[in-house]
Amino acid sequence: MNTQLIISYLSELSRNNNREWYHSHKEEYKEACAAFEALLQELILEIGKTDSSILHNEPKDLTFKIVRDTRFSHDKSPYHPAFRAHIGAKGKLPVPVGYYLMIKPQNQSFLGGGLFADMFRDATAMVRDYIAEHPGEWDEIIHNEEFMRYFTVKGNSLKNVPKGYDKEHSQAEFLKYKSWYLEYAVEDNAILSPETFLQQAAQVYTAMKPFNDYLNRALSEFQMPVRG
Fold it and tell me: What element of type H or E holds 112?
């Protein structure tokens, strides 16, 4: 697979983030998309060695559009100069949580996981309750040596422990969170060497899996909201 196509196209898009350039370079876009999907297929197979729940996925079903919704944004550039995908047990749905990939030139790429979406209040409540009830397991996961080699837990957070939870709880700091996610930065050079990238990604995602598993146990009863 030619990952150079991905980096080259996205770099050009970043420099020419306008509709005229985009539409006049549709062929390059198709080639870059094909390269990204080929990379995703190999990544699925690698992750599948330790997490078989994602093996059924088709790469084309996991990707996000590069067209931006600019209606409520100060940034009116029409495109995301990045290729993004979520590899989960239910595809690219945010729950169950899975393995997120963003490729963005100038060393802005990362491997991610966990619950990014804090707009689902039920999901946030379920995770808070689970952490409150299973603090020891949470502590063991986030202080595991392999986990700490790659990650620190990130997330949008309240200033105070929310009402209904013990302010003196051993995991009080994490009960403030509205989302719980991980990011591991990846440099362009790693992506330009597909074999190196796949090996690195497999190691990172393997270290991430206990964290994802914990959140998915917390979210086992969660139902995605049905749109209007």
Answer: strand 109-115
Q: In whole angstroms, what is the distance from residue 196 CA to residue 110 CA?
A: 15
pTM strictly above 0.90 = yes
Structure tokens, 35: 């390269």
Tokens representing 167 are 């302010």
HSE toward the beta carbon, residue 223, CA cutoff 13 A: 3
Half-sphere exposure of 104 (CA within 13 A, CB side): 15
Rounded to a whole number of angstroms, the CA Rg of the chain reads 19
∠61-81-65 over CA atoms, to 5°?
Answer: 25
DSSP 178: S
**DSSP, res 118:** T
pLDDT means per 10 residues in the chain (228 residues)?
Answer: 95 97 97 98 97 97 94 87 98 96 98 93 97 98 98 97 97 98 97 96 98 98 82
